[in-house]
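Why do we bother with holo predictions? Because pocket geometry can differ from the apo form. Keep that in mind while you read this record for iron/sulfur cluster.
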Amino acid sequence: MSIVILRKTKYDYNKLKPQIFEILDFFCGDLIKKNSRVVIKPNLLTPASPDRAILTHPLVVKASVEYVLQKGARPQISDSPGTGSFEKILKESSIRDALTGVYVDFKEFKTSLLVDIGEPFKQIEIGEDALKADVLINLPKLKTHTQMLLTLGVKNLFGCIVGLKKPEWHFRTGVDREMFAKLLVKIYKAVNPTVTILDGILAMEGQGPGRGGIPRELGVLIGSNDTVAIDFVVCKMIGIDPDRLLTNKVAKEMGFVHEGIDLKGDQMFGIEDFKLPQITPLVFGPKRLHRVMRKHLVQRPVCDDTLCELCEECLQYCPANAISQSRKKIHFDYDSCIRCYCCIEVCPHGAFCTEETLLGKIVRKVLKLNK
Ligand code: SF4
Ligand code: SF4
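The structure, written out:
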């Protein structure tokens, strides 16, 4: 049985701090020793202010750091951002400000160790500091995700893959969401966070996880030493079958889901009308037709030229080199595009969204493939 602590709360430090201390005490109080190296891994995807609900809130990070310090241990804040410099993210997120005068290391994941995560991926490079930490505190944000439906506790650990290795792995798993979910679960098991605290106080719905999403106040903080159990609880709260989140489904198939959840703290409540991104099956039928299907049937990324600032972040990040810029406009090579939607995630100006092709709409309606 997994234990999960749920707390209704808000970004009021006097209220939030004891709640975070309570969760950390319960799940890792005995594990943090004097001088332990404790790596705190928030969601630091891209430079964004706290009101955008893209990143873990600075007060959640601050309370975690203060807990570690109170134990006489050494806190370190680390992540490998999707876009933008680590320093810029710390500034724009207000994490730098929140931790002024507090003794903490800020260190981007830069070096990796090779870890064998088994078939079909075999060896993968994972951030060395995450692997070598005495204790790892995972601090994800509750957000929607255009490719994977939601990004919660398990998906947050993909940030332990250093820099441009992330899009490379997107490319390797291609359009197969289930394969990508398998990769995420394997990374989660390899990293093995000691405790996860999900920041769902100001969450994100709609076309997340970047600037295309809409912030929504849910007022919830969820902690556990079983990250998958947290992801299950969130699905139940927003009223969806936990298996719709593929990382849950895959974790269950791999035997990583415990029988039952013992929910402590405040009572679980339902979240009405939580807006999920529209996720449609990417490809189906015989494999030889997948390429042509992907081009004509699968939702494609599109760019709103009025929002695009031509910063070219998307060009650098696209794992398939499917984006180019000419005549002051962004262009897509939809033949090469693998529909990973990384561009939506990393665009600092929210210029991308997805667009259903007309043919895709018709085919899915006829075959009743929409979920
Ligand atoms: S679409 Fe976004 S990331 Fe790409 S060039 Fe325009 S502003 Fe930059
Ligand atoms: S264009 Fe966007 S969706 Fe297509 S492969 Fe590149 S990053 Fe992924």
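The two ends are 30 Å apart (CA to CA).
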